[in-house]
């Protein structure tokens, strides 16, 4: 790709509704960007869109590509182990993209990419912190760990799956099949569930919030809760208090293990600002182990917003990472054979979706009564 002599990398952020791609300078500046809708349940079409968007930047000297994926990525940053929303199982994405665009490519978990972006160019850079944890609060909960200025992926590349820390034994059923996971209590979905439950019990107090929807608790959506809370709806404010308290409880568990200097909170829900962060800070201070003998951990909002994943993935691509196992000795015939094997193992996106739905349904059937009871009686503080 021709250009003006300055070196750039490309960051790709694969979301559930859009694929965003940007050209990023060495100092984290987004100099060009494009996006397209994410193909629904069509793994091959997703790959085609990535290649199309990356190939469209021919006016810059691009040296590498970094791709953030919502899923499990192997330690060599080459293979998507499992990304259910995209229909990928054991997908050799790095090899496929490198062949198509002719550039070194690395694959990264999307939350790790966002954490790295905030560390290098956002909230972490402003504070000068080398030890921080990012928690992304959206539909679920994700995150990334930076210790000593190094992104921590774990031995197999699948660390920091914060959303599935178990906070409540035998608690609410999670989509992963387990019970009591953090994201069942502090995510955007959990906020909506809490707000609807409170509104069904206190309809008169929830009038502002209900008015944003169809007048019923079931019609309440995430933006309605934020807007109503900002206008003083006490039920909406209480829903944020509950979510903030649960967010803090999870962070306390993480801090007990890792002792970070700061938590950077990102994701869509953090747009509510102090409605979420203020109760989280109060609960965190109350629950932190040995609080009187240690400094208070900073809890700060992310600064890069939706750009964190693109900027982080692009910066991580500057270190091309270890080569895929056998990459230097694999023949074309062997590569074709491996692609065929992976395709056969992966199956269609529909099959993956059915498998996930089936496992979740089985777990629900086994413990429906217990889960419903816990969900009704989960403490709010």
Summarize the structure.
This protein is 43% helix and 19% strand.
Outline the structure in words.
The protein is α/β, with parallel strands linked by helices and 381 residues long. The protein folds into 2 domains: 7-114 and 309-347, Nucleotidyltransferase, domain 5; 128-303, 2-Layer Sandwich (Nucleotidyltransferase, domain 5), CATH 3.30.420.40. It has helices at 43-55, 93-101, 110-121, 123-127, 183-186, 188-201, 207-212, 222-230, 234-258, 274-287, 308-316, 332-346, 349-377; strands at 7-14, 18-25, 30-37, 61-69, 72-73, 80-83, 88-91, 105-109, 132-137, 141-147, 150-152, 262-266, 298-301. The chain is globular. 44% of the residues are buried. The model is unreliable at 324-377 (pLDDT under 50).
Question: Can you give keywords for this protein?
Answer:
381 residues, alpha/beta, Nucleotidyltransferase, domain 5, 2 domains, five-stranded mixed beta sheet, 19% strand
Radius of gyration: 22 Å
Write out the CATH superfamily name of the largest domain: ATPase, nucleotide binding domain
Number of helices: 13
Q: How large is the share of residues in beta strands?
A: 15-25%
Q: State mean pLDDT (0 to 100 scale).
A: 85
Number of domains: 2
Task: List the SSEs and their pairings.
Elements: E1 7-14, E2 18-25, E3 30-37, H1 43-55, E4 61-69, E5 72-73, E6 80-83, E7 88-91, H2 93-101, E8 105-109, H3 110-121, H4 123-127, E9 132-137, E10 141-147, E11 150-152, H5 183-186, H6 188-201, H7 207-212, H8 222-230, H9 234-258, E12 262-266, H10 274-287, E13 298-301, H11 308-316, H12 332-346, H13 349-377
Parallel strand pairs: 1-4, 4-8, 9-12, 12-13
Antiparallel strand pairs: 1-2, 2-3, 5-6, 6-7, 9-10, 10-11
